[in-house]
Amino acid sequence: MTASIRKLLLSLALTASLTACDRDAGPADDHSAAAETASSAQPVHETAQDSIAWLKGDVDAAFALAAAEDKPLFLYWGAAWCPPCNQIKATIFSRPEFIEKSRLFVPVYLDGDTERAQKLGDRFGVMGYPTMIVFNSAGEEITRIPGGLDIGLYADVLDLTLQNVRPVADVLDALMAGQDLSEDDFRLLAFYSWQQDNERAMADRDQLEVFRRMSEACPPGLAAASARLYVAYLTAAIAAAEETEIPLAFADKVTAVTRVATILEDDQLSRANVYMTLYEARPILAATTASGSLERDGLLRRWNKRLDAIDADPDYSIAHRLATSMTRMDLVRIDDAEAPIPESLQQNVAARVAWADAEAKTPYQRQAVINTAWYVLSDAGLDDEARTLLTAELEKSRQPYYFMLDLAELEQKAGNTDAALVWLKRAYDESQGPATRFQWGYGYVNGLIEMTPEDADTIAAVTEQVLSELDGQSDAIHGRTGRILNRLSQKLAAWNEDGRYDQQIAMIQNRVAGLCASLADDETSLVTCRAVLEEA
What we know:
CATH superfamily of the domain at 24-205: Glutaredoxin
Distance between the termini: 24 Å
Structural class: mainly alpha
Low-confidence stretches: 1-49
Radius of gyration: 24 Å
CATH class of the domain at 24-205: Alpha Beta
Oligomer: single chain
CATH topology of the domain at 24-205: Glutaredoxin
Number of strands: 6
């Protein structure tokens, strides 16, 4: 796929930066209705002793079941093609200890392509796949669990939610009001998925100030929680510094070097902060140390030593162990994003990808591992090897259309426009599920606009075809689909900025107008639909 589409997919999957929603009221806690509605929430299949009894059907019935049984509810929002979702299925949901723990909850699986899923996504304020939310038996949201945690840390967070802790939003209110927090309060804050908060707990607060207050207030004796809250503050401070172009203060740099070094030197702290270790090395080092300084050299040694430890540790997932290769390349490029990768590192990357390819056996593992592997190869300048890997995976993957987007990106990068568009079209044609088909269709339209903007009739025809994916879906224009529809309108408006394609835009607008007319009973969808008309 094109680089811009990959960024869209990653941002939708990992961040909550596209839109903000008002805090929803929790599901009704009418216990008298629970017995009447709970029976409509049914297991996905006959539950074996070694599997999670995910519920499908009426989500409100699942909340009623939770109320009737006085259990918390564990909501998992995912998609079949999503690599982080497959990573969780391969590393967490398959573990006996997690399966056993799940029996203390009402576990609900929401696939983004099922009926009403995107509307439910709006209701719960989910932004990307995967999202995991725990509600108490009264339907109040307690916490959002981040991906990429060690199995033991997942268990610890779930144990917290079983102890009648107050919701993260209430804990944050108390903190900002200057009230004392318990140790469990700090643990809940530390292991909350702030990237997927979607203005739930954070609301209109200043994010940097919130993270600063959490980090300063957390007792140092809570080592893992204190480290995670400090890293949350540090990454937010670095982001703010980049936005304002005002470097971190000297004292902040000194503190950062000391605290990051402590995390890297400690197995448990680095395990609790694996996301920092694997994905934040370059921004942290660039913001806190100078090239050639003792501080830079010291942190580099510690970082590489920790990467060695992760790569050699079978308790980490295959994808995480492979991701250490990407981090090593980031360390080479701290001060120059275009710096060439040494041949010795390229050879190491190729060897580690070959190892990961051979090691990943299950479909869940492979969806996560191959997604990491092709990116690592391409980042190392090994595009031919990445192309070979992806092409071979099409015969193995349950969702080959996902990797066709990556093949399209490689071909576009190489200047092979025709081949890139063939892959984008095939990915769209073979994609499955209403939300997925619309998203992949957007990718095809965007590719046409980027690579063949003068082919106006094809762009208009494909856009109309993609819009037809929404026909007959009363709840279609919600959640991700609504956000992608807005992006589509923005792309079309930019494409026709000079009015050159007014005729084709008029055809598309007529198609959107027909779609809007079918949504008269859904005010939210109608507002989005009309905004698209105005934008285009």
